[in-house]
Amino acid sequence: MNRKNRTIKEEVWDFVEKWPIYQKDLSDPLLYMGDDERRDLQNRLLREQLRWLDEGSKYYQRKFKEVGLCPEDIRSVEELEKVPLTYKQEYMQFPDDFFLTFKNPTIYDHLWQVTYTSGTTTGKPSPFYSTSHDYYAKLLQCRRRSKVAMMTPDDMQLSIMPIGALPHIAFYGVFDNTTAISGPGIMTCVGTKHPQFDIHNSMDYAIEAIRRFRPTILYSLTSYARQVLMRAQEKKEDFSSVRMILAAGEPCSKGLRDDLRGRFAALGAKNVFVTNAFACTELQGSLAECWEFSGCHNSSPDLFYLEVVDETGKRLPDGKQGLLAITHLNRRGTALLRYLTGDLVTMSREICPNCGRPGERLIPTEGSSYAVRTKDLIKVKGTLINPAVIMEILASKPQIDEYQVIITKQDPKDPYSQDRMLIRIATQIKEKNEFANQIVYQVKNISEVKPEIEFTEAKNIYDAEVVTKAVRFVDRRPKIT
Asked: What confidence score (pLDDT) does residue 480 get?
């Protein structure tokens, strides 16, 4: 193999050359292309994608006409600033208008899969369509992502991701990844039970599967993983086979990663790589970490172009926090141009100090989190706070079994009464007053808001057998009309 890109570290090249499945992708833009060659590829793909949008996207046909643009006006990714931003509200309102239709479709242009966005402000799930063309591209993306994280075809991958009412990208993670690299995988089918069809399995079943099948890689929701590990510690299980866990669906701060790693160590697994790659439906996957907090790599810059912009759509320099905008470069189903995901992020294009790869990386932007949801920045007692920073403090406390932050009013019946921050905590610690004072001091110091502490049982906060994901932050203040 020609080690063309000399920035890539030797141990990365050695890993790629060891596994034939990774040698197959000789088009990998981060391994084999220089900056200019990669940018030329993106420009060519963008021009082709714009033609597809002009032909088959009802939304962008209207948008181009409104602003007086045609595809020939945009010849490079640098010129994307001419294009108005696409907002999530527009997509949620008319999701089918973003699905491409073609005058002469090929066999690869037919619908393959539908997944749904979640966590929208309206609560209404929005379908995201993928054609056969898109699914093949997704498998290539999965292979490259696995390559970045140094996952091998010999790894046994096991999912304790819940199966829910709507298909989501995290649930398909093991299936897609193992398909992409031709490796073994197991789905444990846990989650909230269906009212009619008894197909879900219990947490103890998932723990037994880990013991029985000896996986090296686990997939889980962040909060559910911690519940499983705590239960496994009670049962004195052996998880010594595990070397990596992909904790997804929620932020996983440094404190929480350390907590998970410590629990794995108590179960016999040493130096577990706890990864919390940035993911969203619009990427149909995640941007992988090559190591913890080294940054989330865009391993397929021939599929996605990422920008960090301000509210007007002006592109911000690297290192500056702003809104993440995604442009698809090679999609045939739901296709988006300068789409705002609703995340505040920070980007770097410097060579990764861990693996030596060039290209786009999201780097930690708030504490040890890669992204902050713009809707999560709220005012409490007149002070703008980021709840993620408060939750990072709580997640870093190994004495805390479960926690929840609630914003309410001193008088719940009076919407004009003073704001109140309540932190509910489940812990086995005996000196609760001293511990509460410590939490109050740290939270007030970082948010300028003094919280109240309430101690309760863990199941009153999060019962994994009842709900899929822990609700860590709740704003119960009545809306003032």
From this structure: 58
